[in-house]
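A favour, since you know our structure tokens better than I do. Go ahead and set the record down below.
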Amino acid sequence: QVQLVESGGGSVQAGGSLRLSCAAFGYTSSSVSMGWFRQAPGKEREGVAAISTAGGNTNYADSVKGRFTISQDNAKNTVYLQMNSLKPEDTAMYYCAADWLYSAPLDPDRYRYWGQGTQVTVSS
């Protein structure tokens, strides 16, 4: 059973930074894509960034390009999301997801395994 445990959310002022972590347990294959998704109240869940752990390919939503960076530590089965220049519109619950995918898609429907989420709040 794959388990994902997120940490690192919190409250910051606009322009600040946060780093989210997602530790994965329960799989041994390296051919996994892991992604970060977010959902604000009243909005659909959207893909933020994803990475293919085998090849290191990454994908980003246009709204976060140049501000967010997804990275991995394969030895720790952990994926990180470094968020810089945060804006109030980045406020949301952030979720980590994983599945046996090669292309690091940003479509949340492609992922079967999800963490519990961590709240990010950015004040103006």
